[in-house]
Design a protein that fits this description.
Elements lengths: L1 E2 L2 E6 L2 H6 L6 H12 L4 E4 L11 H11 L4 E4 L9 H14 L4 E5 L6 H9 L7 H16 L7 E4 L4 E5 L13 E3 L4 H10 L2 E2 L6 H19 L6 E10 L3 H16 L3 H5 L4 E4 L1 H14 L3 E6 L4 H11 L8
Helix pairs in contact: 3-4, 4-6, 7-8, 8-11
Length: 322
């Protein structure tokens, strides 16, 4: 949904479906259709193999692409380090063709936790290499997508090698889909400014978001000569309830079940908010005033469809710039 240059998207609850033991995809696809029909700008899915199990993101987005026509489709976020870049480039190109150029490739490195380290170990990827593999993977993918696949690509990288690889089909969007990155630490913001077309952190406060965005812009100006290509985005979790007490209880239960950690520990590093629609609107408006122009909403706990309806009716129409 777009309102006065503010775009809003919705994360599909692929993790929540697995957590609840409901492995059917029909409800997820129906929700995707409902989100698009309500006028939202984008639909998103997360990624994890073992640490936080869910449906494989690109496979699911292929199905969503076939059921939608307008919404941009994105990963929030995909972990390139866990995939060979040739296989990743092929899958991304195919999904972007199915979506007719609507794909946004949100990528990240994964947080440091015991479960994530085990996930990388099981995938045969040293956890300490996740940043280097992310950067090298993106570079290889972009080479494979360049020039409509006309030129074979040979690479002798630190992690992967290619010999005269010519990938077809290439993505519908020339050069590949836009890449969005997250992360607020200095290294992450500088990486986004240097390599990405969008920045989508999970900020705790508007002030933290603004500080990170300033670093993204500074790096882009210094290393790429401008910032017009960058989308200032935010990924955030809300429980939009009838009343604050119920919403807060649902969000706490959701977060602790999702992350297997105390709510307070996760809330120190991720942006969460629970309350009625007015309270949630005020929360989002703080980020809009800070400069956010694309908001990706994850509904934390409770009835997803009910929260979507309440957000559509009471929040998004009032979210525009003053």
């Amino acid at each position: 949904m777009t309102t006065e240059s503010i775009q809003v998207g919705v994360l599909l609850p692929t993790r929540e479906a697995v957590m609840s033991g409901r492995f059917e995809t029909a409800p997820l696809l129906a929700l995707a259709e409902r989100v698009e029909a309500a006028g939202y700008a984008s639909l998103w899915v997360g990624d994890s193999l073992l640490a936080r199990p869910r449906f494989e993101p690109l496979t699911l987005l292929a199905a969503v692409a076939a059921r939608t026509r307008r919404c941009r489709l994105g990963t929030a976020v995909l972990l390139p380090a866990l995939r060979h870049p040739l296989v990743l480039a092929h899958a991304v190109a195919t999904v972007d063709r199915l979506a007719e150029g609507r794909l946004v490739l949100g990528v990240g490195i994964a947080p440091d936790s015991k479960a994530v380290r085990r996930e990388f170990e099981n995938a045969g990827v040293p956890f300490a290499q996740r940043v280097g593999r992310l950067v090298e993977s993106l570079a290889i993918c972009r080479q494979l997508w360049a020039d409509a696949g006309e030129r074979p690509v040979s690479v002798q990288g630190r992690y992967w090698s290619l010999d005269e690889a010519r990938l077809l089909p290439t993505p519908a969007r020339a050069g590949g889909p836009p890449v969005w990155m997250g992360g607020e630490v200095a290294a992450a913001t500088e990486r986004a400014g240097r390599l990405a077309e969008g920045w989508m952190p999970n900020s705790v406060t508007p002030e933290a978001w603004a500080e990170g965005w300033a670093r993204v812009l500074a790096t882009a100006r210094a290393e790429r000569g401008g910032t017009a290509h960058l989308t200032p985005a935010l990924y955030t979790t809300l429980n939009v309830g009838r009343d604050a007490r119920t919403a807060e209880a649902e969000l706490r239960k959701f977060v602790e079940g999702y992350y297997a950690a105390p709510y307070e520990a996760i809330a120190r590093v991720q942006g969460f908010h629970a309350g009625d629609a007015a309270s949630c609107l005020e929360r989002l408006q703080g980020f809009v005033r800070a400069g956010v122009r694309h908001i990706v909403l994850r509904f934390g706990g409770g009835d997803q469809a009910e929260q979507l309806e309440r957000t559509t009716r009471e929040i998004v129409p009032r979210l525009g710039l003053p």
